[in-house]
Amino acid sequence: MKTNDASAYPRDFQGYGDHPPDPNWPGNARVAVSIVINVEAGSELSVADGDERNESVYEIIEPVEGVPNHCLASHFDYGPRVGYWRIMRTLERFDAPCTVSAAGRAIERSPWLAADVVSRGHEIACHSYRWERHAEMEEAHERTIIDKAVYWIREAAGVRPVGWHTKGAPSPNTRRLLVEEGGFLYDSDAYDDDLPHVVEVAGRNHVIVPYAFDTNDMRFMAGGTFVHAKDFARYCIDAFDALWREGERNPTMMSVGLHPRLIGRPGRIAGLEAFLEHLQTKDRVWLARRMDIAHHWRALMGLSEWTGKG
To answer: Which of 71, 159, 183, 304 is the most buried (most CB within 10 A)?
Structure first.
């Protein structure tokens, strides 16, 4: 599927401008901090799993074509085996809630992980079914993929996901399909703001909770700019401090992206610890799940309470 129709990807260059709305965060917070853990192990492309090719996103640069790449698979496997637990122990120490953005196939293969997320009071959201972009998907296939991702997460977690984030690029249909599916409160397929916003899709009001790739541990991967734990901590702390200062006049939000196979390594976890320690030195900070931010934003905008299907 290809399109050159710019209307399929509407862009708003003005946004809130220099007069953003007061989000009136709980506790009169200056910054709402959203920690997102991306669970992907087992959903990445793999010839061994019958996929068309091996994954091309690497912890190390060692491409293997045409045959299984068991070395690469083991890098992903570190996430659920070890890294996930290290991150969860860290969040528990700081009483920090998070959103776990999980690929459906990852949860199909590690259902215990979804159950653990919910038991800890965190949110579990959809990261598609396979860890793949949707940009070229035909509509019927994409609809099936969305339904499949929801099915496996709901089966394992006991609750259905209400948030969505596409790996890479969504298709021109993705957001409409999410709204038509009826069970999604929000999506995070945007990187264009430091506050949520509402868009009308298929005649309904839909919340966008923007994500971020700069305050993200993916920069530890090959070719990235983070080498040491302190690199992650320093960048995230600098970002938070800027937002916290601005928050005296214009409260805002911050997204922090994590991956169990990356920040979950023992040489990197100190970066997350240092960031969370820094948050404790500040007042008026709301650590929140993305679903809570989206519900809050609907109420702020005067929209009816979101109840999902029906």
So the answer is: 183
CATH tag for 23-300 (out of 3.40.109.10, 3.20.20.370, 3.40.50.2300, 3.40.50.970): 3.20.20.370
Of 55, 80, 45, 24, give the one whose Cα is nearest residue 196. 24
Task: Give CA angle at 216 (215, 221), nearest 5°.
Answer: 135
φ, ψ for residue 299, nearest 5 deg: -65, -40
CA–CA separation, 65 and 299 (whole Å): 50
235 conformational bin, left if phi > 0, alpha if psi -120 to 50, beta if neither: alpha
- At position 95, the amino acid (one-letter code) is D
Q: What's the mean pLDDT in 111-119?
A: 97
Of 99, 104, 106, residue with least CA distance to 144:
104
Angle at the Cα of 114 from the Cα atoms of 256 and 155, rounded to 5 degrees: 135
